[in-house]
Amino acid sequence: MKSLVLAEKPSVAREIARVLKCTGKRKGYFEGPQYVVTWSLGHLVTLAEPEDYDHKYKQWSLEDLPMLPAGMKLKVIRQTSHQFQVVRNLTKREDIHQLVIATDAGREGELVARWIMVMTNWRKPFKRLWISSQTDDAIREGFANLKAGSAYDNLYDAAVCRAEADWLIGLNVTRALTCKFNAQLNAGRVQTPTLAMIVNREAEIKQFVPVDFWTVRVDFGDYFGDWRDKSGHSRIFDLTKAEEISARIRGHHGVIKEVSTESKSEPPPLAYDLTELQRDANKRYGFSAQKTLSVLQDLYEHHKLVSYPRTDSRYITTDIVPTLPARLKSIAAGPYAGLVKPLLLKTLTPTKRFVDNNKVSDHHALIPTGQPLLLANLAADERNLYDLIARRFIAVLYPPYRYGKITLITEINGENFYSRGKVVKDPGWRAVTAGAAEKEESNEDVLPEQTLTLQRKSDQKQVKSFKINKSKTKPPARYTEATLLTAMENPGKFIEDEDMRESMKGSGLGTPATRADIIEKLLHTSYIERHGKELVPTSKGQQLITLVSPALKTPELTACWEQRLTDIARGRDSKKDFLAGIRKNARELVESVIADTAVYKADNISKTKCPACGKFMLLVNCKRGKTLACPDRVCGHRQPEKQDDFGVFRSSKNASRVNQKLIAQFSDQGSIGQNVGELLKAALAKKSTEENLP
Predict the structure, then answer these.
(1) Rounded to 5, what percent of the chain is helix, strand, coil?
(2) What value does the mean pLDDT of the chain take?
(3) Does domain 277-396 have CATH number 3.40.50.620?
(4) Angle 184-172-553 (CA atoms, 0-180°, nearest 5)?
(5) In this model, does residue 111 exceed pLDDT 80?
(6) Domain segments of the chain: what residues?
(7) Residue 402 CA to chain centroid, in angstroms?
(8) What span, in angstroms and rounded, lies between the C-alpha atoms of 230 and 303?
(9) Active-site position among 35, 152, 272, 308
(10) Residue range 651-670: average pLDDT?
């Protein structure tokens, strides 16, 4: 008897098959003496479309909303149905006695496999492969310690809740908005509050009125000092006051009033989780969140150099500690050899800052595996991302950064001027991350650091010069992907209710695995645009936020749902209760859209008329560039922004009808028009042959 192993991707299946010695290559699977290894292609099964429940839903209508099926149905995805047939046929084989789920070890991976099991009517035993890296040793160890499949039933319930919630909320609200305002508008439980944060920030920027302020700085020769009031503030919002301070210090000497020296110790940073890595990659290399995830997936699957990417933990468990020396040895190459050497010369005793079983749920922090590092095999982007991970891993095991902090207060005729310096005693972990971006200071009143020589209290200091500097208050910065990921991870500060804000700690908008997709969807649907590193809302995005229900555009609701999904996965909440609440939410959200009296006005109207109905078309973004789309949903005509010679449209729902209309128009315009019509027919026939254009 054999075990059927279901992986999520062909590349992963190939590696598992190699380790399990499944050398027989078949169409859609590998076979060996003990195992048959097959794969999905992401999801092979999905939730049924509205029209699969009732044909009336094929036409979008406000009267048919909300759509709340009594029970949710599944269907096989047509585009990948060939692979589903392979998997289904394998499940029917009499020599297959159990299934091993080897899809990604997470909520979505569990859903991929379980829905396939439902659609193939799997009734035999099943087990779960749960590993955090794709190395040969990890795969062997995982198969030697397979988990009971039922141990992940709660995770499956949480995944179903997420999928059904997105269907019930997303499809209902999207149809309601689109029908109500006759425009391609869509909303979702995570993307809409994320968009709202970007729109609200833009409103703050536009409403911001800059205010002039002044600061006073004195040069004492071997150091400088900045004026501060008794509360420690440096900004002076009255020029007259700044001039008065300057007048009081003119012609006077300074006296060192206070010399404060204290020893400081800064512990190493926490190890990476996915979101923190995406933030740093965006700051350091300008990577989008999606690009970071894509490159990271290659480091995990193809090169096998890093552990499971979609982790939300920054800690490891105690059972990983014995593997740390081997992991360090595997990366002791190139720029890391000298950094690793001192760690390998001693016994590693990591503290709870790195090792904490209570802070690891499904997967530990993102760290290197024991796979030997061959830098020459990595592309430039892979090297850059791996460098962040490797240096952070090494830094976590280094001693604290220790320094002496020196603060001087120099008094001139009753006015205090502050200076701050630092003396490094032990670079510690900062020796590993040299060149990395320093931690950003959020307080603009923080004293700038400078090199300070030894100074003594009561010493007199000559005033070499002083200057009044004029500045303006600045509006809040636009979101970058790095700062947006932070806001999505910690949306509590956007919540006014204190109890709700406190309960949201540890929760957020989406998960580390989905946040990159959310940002890409907002870009693809033209709700936001990238301006350099900044994310800027479009008019469409700003209008959408005015149209959706307040409940859907605030973080409370969706973050509360994410927390409940986590609780369901841990057996602390009820799937039934959660979905009952979602259905109620869906009904309320649709009712709020129907009752809305607002108006939507597209601002992306082109000068090109729709050749099918005559309305001016909209210029919209799509994966292949700009596309012209008819604003009338009933018409539905689409065409590339630029049409071919003679006006032939390459891709369009109504291409055949429109092109025939063009031919008829030319043919009715005499002999010259007939010749042009014949040329158009020939061009159309050629394109039909080349591209199967109807």
Answers:
(1) 45, 20, 35
(2) 88
(3) no
(4) 75
(5) yes
(6) 2-145, 165-205+480-594, 212-268+401-472, 277-396, 605-691
(7) 34
(8) 58
(9) 308
(10) 47
Render pLDDT for 8-22 as a digit per residue (tens, 0 to 9): 999 899 999 999 999
For 308-350, write each residue's pLDDT tens digit. 999 989 999 998 999 999 999 999 999 999 999 999 999 999 9
pLDDT score recorded for residue 328: 97
Highest mean pLDDT among 264-273, 618-627, 629-638: 264-273
pTM: 0.81
Based on the residue annotation, tell me whether 53 is a catalytic residue of this protein: no
Cβ neighbours for 513, distance < 8 A, ≥ 6 positions apart: 106, 107, 108, 274, 310
Compute, in degrees rounded to 10, the torsion defined by CA atoms 72, 77, 83, 88: 30
Alpha carbon distance 562, 332 (integer Å): 40
Structure tokens at 453: 């020589």
Q: Which amino acid is at 613?
A: C
β-bridge pairing 35-39 and 254-266: unpaired
Burial 203-226 (b: 16+ CB within 10 A, else e): eeeeeeeeeebbbbbbebeebbbb
Query: CATH says 212-268+401-472 is which class?
Result: mainly beta
* C-beta pairs of 69-75 under 8 Å, 24+ apart in sequence: 72/47, 72/48, 72/164, 72/167, 73/47, 73/48, 74/45, 74/46, 74/47, 74/48, 74/115, 74/118, 74/119, 75/45, 75/46, 75/47, 75/48, 75/49
Spatial separation of the C-alpha atoms in residues 476 and 204, rounded to whole Å: 7
